[in-house]
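Lab meeting, item 3. Inverse folding demo.
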C-alpha cells in the first residue's frame, strides 16, 4: 500500500477546505431559495411550544400534529401575507402608471406655499424608479409564481421533517455545533427569544399600528385608507420612521386642502395614540418575549431587504441578532478555554 504524501495536519486542512468549498457551492446553488430554509427554521421555533405540548406532554401523533401546524401556518400566516403583498404590488404599479392623483396633491401643496418645486416628468421618473426598485423586492405573482411556489414548498417540506424527525435533528445540531452542552442550551434560548421578539412581537406591533393608522385615515376621510393601512403594516417594521411616513403626509395633505380639523385630528392620533401604542407594546412584550434594540432592528431591516426582499423585514434583524448572540457565545467559549488551560498549566 502506497504511503500518502500528506501529513495528518495537511490532510485535516485539505479536508476542511474541501468541506468549505462544497458548502460554498451548495449555498451558491441554493441562494435563490435560502429564504425557504430560513423561514422553516423560524416557524420551527415559533410553533415548537405547541408541538411539545401536544406531542411530548399529551402524546398525540407527531405526524398529525405536524400536518396541522403546516396547514395553520399556510392558511393563517403564509397566504394572508402573500395576498397582502400582492395587493401592495398592484397598487404601487397603478400609482406608478397614473401620476394624476399624486400630481394633484403636489399642485395643491404648491398653491398653498406659493412655490413650485415639481413637474410631472420628474415625478413620473421618480415613481417609475421607485416601482422598479420595489418590484425587485416584492414578490410578483406574474413574474415569479414558480419561484414563490418552490420557496413555500421547500419551507413546508423542511418544516415537516424538522418536526417529524425532531430528535435526530436536535441531536445533529448538538453533535456538529462547536459548543459545550450548557452553551448550546443558552444559545437555543437566546435564539428563541430573538425569534419571538422579531417575528411575533414585531408582527403584533405592526398589525396594531397598521390597524390604528387605517382607522385614523378612514375616520378623517383620507382616500384609500385601506391601502395606506397595508403600507403602514410593512413600514411599521422600520423603527422610528415607520407609520409616520403614512399618517404625517396624510395630515399635511388635509391641512393643504383646508381641512384643518381633519389634519389636526390625524396629527393628534398619530403622535398621541399610534406612536405611543408602539412604545407601550414594546415595553409589555419585552417582559414576555424578549427585547431587541431599535438600532439592531433598523440595521437588520436595511440589511435584510437588500438580501431577501420584503422578507428581509423579518429575516434581517434575525440574522443580525443571531450574529451578535454567536459573537457573545464565541467570546465566552474562548474565555472558558483560557481559564481551563490556565488551571491545567498551574496544576
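The presenter then showed the designed sequence:
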Amino acid at each position: 500500500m502506497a504511503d500518502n504524501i500528506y501529513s495528518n495536519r495537511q490532510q485535516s486542512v485539505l479536508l476542511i477546505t474541501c468541506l468549505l468549498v462544497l458548502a460554498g457551492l451548495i449555498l451558491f446553488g441554493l441562494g435563490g431559495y435560502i429564504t425557504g430554509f430560513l423561514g422553516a427554521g423560524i416557524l420551527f421555533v415559533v410553533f415548537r411550544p405547541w408541538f411539545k405540548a401536544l406531542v411530548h406532554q399529551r402524546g398525540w401523533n407527531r405526524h398529525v400534529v405536524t400536518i396541522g401546524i403546516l396547514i395553520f401556518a399556510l392558511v393563517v400566516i403564509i397566504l394572508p401575507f402573500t395576498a397582502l403583498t400582492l395587493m401592495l404590488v398592484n397598487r404601487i404599479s397603478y400609482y406608478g402608471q397614473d401620476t394624476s392623483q399624486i400630481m394633484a396633491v403636489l399642485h395643491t401643496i404648491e398653491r398653498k406655499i406659493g412655490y413650485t418645486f415639481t413637474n410631472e416628468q420628474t415625478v413620473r421618473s421618480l415613481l417609475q424608479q421607485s416601482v422598479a426598485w420595489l418590484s425587485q423586492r416584492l414578490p410578483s405573482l406574474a413574474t415569479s409564481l414558480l419561484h414563490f411556489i418552490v420557496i413555500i414548498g421547500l419551507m413546508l417540506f423542511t418544516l415537516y421533517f424538522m418536526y417529524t424527525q425532531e430528535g435526530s435533528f436536535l441531536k445533529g445540531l448538538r453533535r456538529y455545533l462547536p459548543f459545550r452542552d450548557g452553551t448550546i442550551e443558552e444559545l437555543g434560548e437566546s435564539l428563541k427569544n430573538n425569534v419571538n421578539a422579531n417575528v411575533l412581537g414585531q408582527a403584533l406591533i405592526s398589525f396594531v399600528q397598521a390597524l390604528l393608522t387605517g382607522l385614523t385615515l378612514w375616520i378623517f376621510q383620507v382616500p384609500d385608507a385601506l391601502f395606506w393601512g397595508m403600507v403602514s403594516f410593512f413600514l411599521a417594521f422600520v423603527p422610528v420612521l415607520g407609520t409616520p411616513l403614512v399618517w404625517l403626509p396624510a395630515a399635511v395633505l388635509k391641512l393643504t386642502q383646508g381641512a384643518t380639523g381633519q389634519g389636526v385630528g390625524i396629527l393628534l392620533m398619530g403622535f398621541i395614540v399610534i406612536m405611543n401604542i408602539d412604545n407601550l407594546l414594546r415595553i409589555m412584550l419585552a417582559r414576555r418575549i424578549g427585547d431587541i434594540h431599535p438600532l439592531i432592528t433598523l440595521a437588520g431591516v436595511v440589511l435584510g431587504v437588500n438580501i431577501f426582499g420584503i422578507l428581509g423585514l423579518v429575516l434581517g434583524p434575525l440574522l443580525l441578532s443571531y450574529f451578535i448572540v454567536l459573537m457573545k457565545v464565541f467570546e465566552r467559549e474562548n474565555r472558558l478555554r483560557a481559564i481551563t488551560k490556565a488551571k491545567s498549566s498551574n496544576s
